[in-house]
Amino acid sequence: DTPATLKPLQPGENPTSKITSEQIASLKTDTLHEGELRIAVSILDGVVIYTSGLTQALGYPKDMWIGRSLIDFVHTKHRASFASFIIQSIAELIPGGSVVNGQRNVYFCCLRKYRGINKGYQLNDQRVNYLPCQITLQFRELPPVGDTFYKECLIITAVPVRSAYKYPLENRKSPKFMT
Asked: Is 67 left (phi over 0), alpha (psi -120 to 50) or beta?
């Protein structure tokens, strides 16, 4: 399709709403390894359009991220550098690829874990927990369906990074060194 044959977005129209169920189905064909999280993000507005493995990896209900900005789920200290990484990676990626000049687009950041829904409207002092993840990016063109505007997305694969520590805030004691 040429841009002239596509329906343009109207002012105030959400580009994510133009995604069809057939385009979403094309994202479900990839297989995940245990513990992996796959996220499809709109190139146009940074909104999550598809997730898989979300419940297992971070504890969220199945479609809770759909329609929300990805950056909202990244640790506040990592947001600026994560956004910069994505912008730089989008400029370098080729459709269907995740490697540019022999380099993989890899980033490490923390993604917010689900806290659950509290009963009532009480405030609590519960800490927000994050899961450190290795993020890899892949640019994908969605299959054209009719005259849909929406054609491209960014596929993010997050693999949890496992720590040598067993408990939060654990201090490892080094054994006494003897010669």
From this structure: left
The residue assigned the tokens 């040429």 is: 2
* Distance, CA of 95 to CA of 139 (rounded, Å): 5
Residues facing residue 47 across a β-bridge = 69
Amino acid, single-letter form, for residue 91: A
| SS3 state of residue 73 | helix
144 vs 100 pLDDT, higher one: 144
pLDDT digits (tens, 9 = 90+) for 72-130: 999 999 999 999 998 888 777 655 555 555 456 789 999 999 987 664 555 556 788 99
Q: How far apart are CA 66 and CA 157, in angstroms?
A: 16
Q: What is the DSSP letter of 4?
A: G
What pLDDT, on a 0 to 100 scale, did the predictor assign at position 95?
56
Report domain extents, the chain. 36-116+124-160
Q: What's the mean pLDDT in 4-20? A: 50
User: How much is the pLDDT for 6?
Assistant: 44
Take residue 70 and report the two structure tokens written for it.
């990805």
Q: Which residue type is seen at 66?
A: I
With contact defined as beta carbons under 8 Å apart, do 155 and 38 qualify?
yes
E strand or H helix that includes residue 133? strand 130-141
> CATH top-level class for 36-116+124-160?
alpha beta
